[in-house]
């Protein structure tokens, strides 16, 4: 109930945001960094299933179903975002709306990773 007042505005009062800066080694291609981050995010889906869990109808329990390879691709397409138009993670945070799953957002201009999740 605490966070409900922001929902009609498309905002979330108690989101959790974590930012990490990444400095690629000299000569490490940016497109490879993006693919490795995406691959790592997919791996985390299995290591930390809550990232891909959904809320059950009772609104108390979480349900996690081991995804097929195709379901994993779909989940990654929804939850791993490359923010090409923003210059910083702080700029991205200002645009975020409530999401059913955690997001990992890569900001290539600042080499920042933003983890975003509902509380």
Automatic annotation (TrEMBL):
Domain of life: Eukaryota
Gene3D superfamilies membership: Chloramphenicol acetyltransferase-like domain
Alphabetized InterPro entries for the sequence: CAT-like_dom_sf
Protein name, per record: Uncharacterized protein
Organism: Lophiotrema nucula
């Amino acid at each position: 109930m605490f966070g409900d007042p922001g929902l009609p505005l498309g905002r979330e009062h108690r989101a959790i945001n974590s930012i990490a800066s990444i400095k690629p080694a000299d000569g490490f291609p940016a497109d490879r960094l993006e693919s490795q981050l995406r691959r790592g995010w997919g791996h985390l889906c299995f290591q930390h299933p809550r990232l891909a869990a959904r809320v059950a109808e009772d609104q108390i329990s979480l349900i996690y179903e081991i995804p097929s390879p195709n379901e994993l691709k779909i989940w990654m397409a929804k939850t791993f975002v490359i923010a090409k138009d923003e210059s910083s993670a702080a700029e991205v945070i200002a645009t975020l709306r409530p999401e059913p799953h955690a997001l990992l957002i890569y900001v290539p201009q600042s080499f920042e990773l933003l983890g975003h999740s509902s509380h």
